[in-house]
Amino acid sequence: MSWDEHIMLIAHTVNAFGDKLAVIGNTGSNSTREALHATEQGFAVGMHASLQINPYYGKTSKTGLLNHLHAVLNEGPAIVYNVPGRTGQDIPDDVVNEIGQHSNFLGMKECTGNARIKSHVSRGVNCWSGNDDESHDARHDSGAVGVISVTSNVVPGLMHKLMQDTPDPALNASLKELFAWLFCEPNPIALNTALAMCGLVKPVFRLPYVPLSRAQREKGAALLTAVQEHIPGCTGVRIMEDHEFVLIGRH
Protein backbone atom coordinates (compact mmCIF):
# COMPACT_ATOMS: atom_id res chain seq x y z
CA MET A 1 0.00 0.00 0.00
CA SER A 2 0.99 3.58 -0.47
CA TRP A 3 1.30 5.66 2.71
CA ASP A 4 -1.94 7.45 1.84
CA GLU A 5 -3.74 4.10 1.64
CA HIS A 6 -2.07 2.99 4.84
CA ILE A 7 -3.34 5.99 6.83
CA MET A 8 -6.79 5.72 5.22
CA LEU A 9 -7.00 2.10 6.39
CA ILE A 10 -6.07 3.07 9.94
CA ALA A 11 -8.68 5.85 9.86
CA HIS A 12 -11.33 3.45 8.53
CA THR A 13 -10.52 0.93 11.27
CA VAL A 14 -10.73 3.61 13.95
CA ASN A 15 -14.08 4.83 12.60
CA ALA A 16 -15.50 1.31 12.37
CA PHE A 17 -14.12 -0.28 15.53
CA GLY A 18 -12.24 2.31 17.57
CA ASP A 19 -14.96 2.53 20.21
CA LYS A 20 -14.69 -1.22 20.84
CA LEU A 21 -11.05 -2.11 20.19
CA ALA A 22 -7.59 -0.65 20.64
CA VAL A 23 -6.35 0.16 17.14
CA ILE A 24 -2.61 -0.36 16.69
CA GLY A 25 -1.37 1.06 13.40
CA ASN A 26 1.69 -0.40 11.70
CA THR A 27 3.46 2.89 10.91
CA GLY A 28 7.07 1.73 11.10
CA SER A 29 9.61 2.26 8.34
CA ASN A 30 13.32 1.85 7.66
CA SER A 31 13.40 5.64 7.27
CA THR A 32 13.03 7.45 10.57
CA ARG A 33 11.55 10.44 8.77
CA GLU A 34 8.87 8.28 7.13
CA ALA A 35 8.14 6.44 10.39
CA LEU A 36 7.69 9.71 12.28
CA HIS A 37 5.46 11.22 9.60
CA ALA A 38 3.28 8.11 9.29
CA THR A 39 3.03 7.74 13.06
CA GLU A 40 1.99 11.37 13.47
CA GLN A 41 -0.68 10.84 10.82
CA GLY A 42 -1.83 7.60 12.45
CA PHE A 43 -2.34 9.30 15.80
CA ALA A 44 -4.04 12.22 14.04
CA VAL A 45 -6.70 9.86 12.63
CA GLY A 46 -7.25 8.23 16.01
CA MET A 47 -5.10 5.14 16.39
CA HIS A 48 -4.34 4.26 20.00
CA ALA A 49 -0.79 2.98 19.53
CA SER A 50 1.70 2.15 16.80
CA LEU A 51 3.69 -0.92 15.79
CA GLN A 52 7.30 0.00 15.04
CA ILE A 53 9.66 -2.27 13.12
CA ASN A 54 13.40 -1.69 13.29
CA PRO A 55 15.11 -0.31 10.16
CA TYR A 56 15.31 -3.06 7.55
CA TYR A 57 17.55 -3.80 4.56
CA GLY A 58 19.87 -0.83 5.06
CA LYS A 59 20.09 -1.67 8.77
CA THR A 60 22.00 0.69 11.05
CA SER A 61 24.36 0.73 14.01
CA LYS A 62 23.25 0.07 17.57
CA THR A 63 23.38 3.80 18.26
CA GLY A 64 21.33 4.50 15.15
CA LEU A 65 18.82 1.85 16.17
CA LEU A 66 18.43 3.41 19.61
CA ASN A 67 17.98 6.87 18.12
CA HIS A 68 15.37 5.57 15.68
CA LEU A 69 13.35 3.75 18.34
CA HIS A 70 13.50 6.63 20.81
CA ALA A 71 12.31 9.00 18.07
CA VAL A 72 9.24 6.92 17.22
CA LEU A 73 8.47 6.24 20.89
CA ASN A 74 8.43 9.99 21.47
CA GLU A 75 5.38 10.14 19.16
CA GLY A 76 3.18 8.01 21.43
CA PRO A 77 2.55 4.49 22.76
CA ALA A 78 4.20 1.80 20.65
CA ILE A 79 4.94 -1.91 20.40
CA VAL A 80 8.37 -2.60 18.91
CA TYR A 81 8.48 -5.38 16.32
CA ASN A 82 11.50 -7.70 16.14
CA VAL A 83 11.54 -9.96 13.07
CA PRO A 84 15.12 -10.57 11.89
CA GLY A 85 13.89 -12.90 9.15
CA ARG A 86 12.42 -9.88 7.36
CA THR A 87 14.65 -7.04 8.53
CA GLY A 88 18.00 -8.81 8.52
CA GLN A 89 18.82 -7.30 11.92
CA ASP A 90 17.96 -8.44 15.43
CA ILE A 91 17.02 -5.99 18.16
CA PRO A 92 19.43 -7.07 20.93
CA ASP A 93 18.41 -7.43 24.55
CA ASP A 94 20.40 -4.44 25.76
CA VAL A 95 18.53 -2.23 23.28
CA VAL A 96 15.22 -3.65 24.52
CA ASN A 97 16.28 -2.94 28.10
CA GLU A 98 17.11 0.65 27.24
CA ILE A 99 13.95 1.47 25.27
CA GLY A 100 12.01 -0.33 28.00
CA GLN A 101 12.63 2.71 30.18
CA HIS A 102 10.65 4.93 27.79
CA SER A 103 7.19 5.80 29.09
CA ASN A 104 5.60 5.05 25.70
CA PHE A 105 7.13 1.58 25.33
CA LEU A 106 4.34 -1.02 25.52
CA GLY A 107 6.41 -4.12 24.79
CA MET A 108 7.76 -6.33 22.03
CA LYS A 109 6.23 -8.26 19.18
CA GLU A 110 8.89 -10.96 19.23
CA CYS A 111 9.48 -13.42 16.38
CA THR A 112 12.73 -15.03 17.50
CA GLY A 113 11.17 -17.75 19.61
CA ASN A 114 9.69 -18.49 22.99
CA ALA A 115 13.00 -18.70 24.85
CA ARG A 116 13.58 -15.06 23.93
CA ILE A 117 10.05 -14.14 24.98
CA LYS A 118 10.54 -15.85 28.34
CA SER A 119 13.80 -13.95 28.83
CA HIS A 120 12.12 -10.62 28.05
CA VAL A 121 9.20 -11.38 30.35
CA SER A 122 11.58 -12.27 33.19
CA ARG A 123 12.90 -8.71 32.96
CA GLY A 124 9.43 -7.18 33.06
CA VAL A 125 8.92 -6.65 29.30
CA ASN A 126 5.45 -7.32 27.88
CA CYS A 127 5.66 -9.59 24.84
CA TRP A 128 3.33 -10.62 22.06
CA SER A 129 4.27 -13.68 20.04
CA GLY A 130 4.88 -13.00 16.37
CA ASN A 131 4.80 -16.69 15.42
CA ASP A 132 1.35 -18.26 15.19
CA ASP A 133 2.66 -21.81 15.49
CA GLU A 134 4.43 -20.95 18.76
CA SER A 135 1.82 -18.57 20.16
CA HIS A 136 -0.09 -21.02 22.39
CA ASP A 137 3.08 -22.09 24.18
CA ALA A 138 4.34 -18.50 24.22
CA ARG A 139 1.19 -17.48 26.05
CA HIS A 140 0.90 -20.38 28.47
CA ASP A 141 4.52 -21.45 29.03
CA SER A 142 6.64 -18.36 28.35
CA GLY A 143 4.53 -15.51 29.70
CA ALA A 144 3.48 -13.73 26.52
CA VAL A 145 0.41 -11.54 26.89
CA GLY A 146 -0.93 -12.56 23.48
CA VAL A 147 -0.15 -12.87 19.78
CA ILE A 148 -0.10 -10.48 16.83
CA SER A 149 -1.35 -13.03 14.37
CA VAL A 150 -1.73 -13.83 10.69
CA THR A 151 -4.18 -16.67 11.30
CA SER A 152 -6.49 -14.38 13.27
CA ASN A 153 -7.42 -12.75 9.96
CA VAL A 154 -9.05 -16.06 9.04
CA VAL A 155 -10.26 -17.59 12.33
CA PRO A 156 -10.17 -14.77 14.89
CA GLY A 157 -12.37 -16.59 17.41
CA LEU A 158 -10.14 -19.65 17.51
CA MET A 159 -6.98 -17.57 17.92
CA HIS A 160 -8.68 -15.60 20.70
CA LYS A 161 -9.53 -18.90 22.40
CA LEU A 162 -5.87 -19.99 22.21
CA MET A 163 -4.88 -16.85 24.13
CA GLN A 164 -7.36 -17.34 26.99
CA ASP A 165 -6.21 -18.03 30.56
CA THR A 166 -6.70 -21.79 30.23
CA PRO A 167 -4.34 -23.69 27.91
CA ASP A 168 -5.97 -25.59 25.05
CA PRO A 169 -3.35 -27.95 23.61
CA ALA A 170 -5.97 -29.89 21.63
CA LEU A 171 -7.11 -26.76 19.77
CA ASN A 172 -3.50 -25.74 19.22
CA ALA A 173 -2.71 -29.14 17.72
CA SER A 174 -5.78 -28.98 15.47
CA LEU A 175 -4.58 -25.70 13.99
CA LYS A 176 -0.97 -26.73 13.32
CA GLU A 177 -1.58 -27.65 9.67
CA LEU A 178 -3.43 -24.40 9.03
CA PHE A 179 -0.58 -22.44 10.62
CA ALA A 180 1.94 -24.24 8.41
CA TRP A 181 -0.09 -23.68 5.25
CA LEU A 182 -0.54 -19.97 5.93
CA PHE A 183 3.26 -19.68 6.04
CA CYS A 184 4.09 -22.02 3.14
CA GLU A 185 5.13 -18.86 1.26
CA PRO A 186 6.10 -15.50 2.78
CA ASN A 187 3.19 -13.72 4.41
CA PRO A 188 0.77 -12.35 3.16
CA ILE A 189 0.71 -14.58 0.06
CA ALA A 190 -1.19 -17.50 1.59
CA LEU A 191 -3.41 -15.22 3.68
CA ASN A 192 -4.50 -13.16 0.67
CA THR A 193 -5.10 -16.37 -1.28
CA ALA A 194 -7.15 -17.83 1.58
CA LEU A 195 -9.34 -14.75 1.94
CA ALA A 196 -9.99 -14.76 -1.82
CA MET A 197 -10.86 -18.47 -1.74
CA CYS A 198 -13.36 -17.72 1.04
CA GLY A 199 -14.93 -14.91 -0.98
CA LEU A 200 -13.92 -12.28 1.57
CA VAL A 201 -11.65 -10.16 -0.65
CA LYS A 202 -11.27 -9.60 -4.37
CA PRO A 203 -8.67 -11.94 -5.90
CA VAL A 204 -6.29 -9.08 -6.71
CA PHE A 205 -2.57 -9.22 -5.92
CA ARG A 206 -0.14 -6.35 -6.12
CA LEU A 207 3.21 -7.56 -7.41
CA PRO A 208 5.59 -8.88 -6.24
CA TYR A 209 2.94 -10.87 -4.33
CA VAL A 210 1.25 -13.61 -6.36
CA PRO A 211 -1.33 -16.23 -5.32
CA LEU A 212 -0.42 -19.69 -4.16
CA SER A 213 -0.12 -22.44 -6.75
CA ARG A 214 -3.15 -24.56 -7.54
CA ALA A 215 -1.62 -27.49 -5.64
CA GLN A 216 -1.31 -25.35 -2.54
CA ARG A 217 -4.82 -23.97 -3.04
CA GLU A 218 -6.19 -27.51 -3.13
CA LYS A 219 -4.42 -28.29 0.14
CA GLY A 220 -5.63 -25.04 1.67
CA ALA A 221 -9.22 -25.59 0.57
CA ALA A 222 -9.41 -28.73 2.69
CA LEU A 223 -7.93 -26.96 5.71
CA LEU A 224 -10.20 -23.93 5.33
CA THR A 225 -13.32 -26.06 4.84
CA ALA A 226 -12.57 -27.85 8.10
CA VAL A 227 -12.75 -24.53 10.00
CA GLN A 228 -15.30 -22.78 7.75
CA GLU A 229 -17.80 -22.26 10.56
CA HIS A 230 -15.16 -20.17 12.38
CA ILE A 231 -14.37 -17.90 9.38
CA PRO A 232 -16.58 -14.79 9.73
CA GLY A 233 -18.49 -14.02 6.56
CA CYS A 234 -17.45 -17.17 4.72
CA THR A 235 -20.28 -18.98 2.95
CA GLY A 236 -18.07 -21.40 1.03
CA VAL A 237 -14.49 -22.21 0.06
CA ARG A 238 -13.38 -22.42 -3.59
CA ILE A 239 -10.05 -23.63 -4.94
CA MET A 240 -10.32 -21.05 -7.75
CA GLU A 241 -8.63 -21.14 -11.14
CA ASP A 242 -5.42 -19.34 -12.03
CA HIS A 243 -7.19 -17.02 -14.47
CA GLU A 244 -9.45 -15.70 -11.73
CA PHE A 245 -6.56 -13.94 -10.01
CA VAL A 246 -5.54 -10.48 -11.13
CA LEU A 247 -1.91 -9.36 -10.81
CA ILE A 248 -1.20 -5.63 -10.69
CA GLY A 249 2.23 -4.13 -11.14
CA ARG A 250 1.89 -0.46 -12.01
CA HIS A 251 -1.38 0.69 -10.42
Automatic annotation (TrEMBL):
GO terms for molecular function: 4-hydroxy-tetrahydrodipicolinate synthase activity. Transmembrane segments: none annotated. It holds the Pfam family DHDPS. Gene3D superfamilies: Aldolase class I (3.20.20.70). Keywords: Lyase, Schiff base. InterPro entries: Aldolase_TIM, DapA-like, Schiff_base-form_aldolases_AS. Belongs to the DapA family. PANTHER family: 4-HYDROXY-TETRAHYDRODIPICOLINATE SYNTHASE 1, CHLOROPLASTIC (PTHR12128:SF15), DIHYDRODIPICOLINATE SYNTHASE (PTHR12128). This is 4-hydroxy-tetrahydrodipicolinate synthase, chloroplastic. It comes from Pleodorina starrii. The gene is PLEST011527.
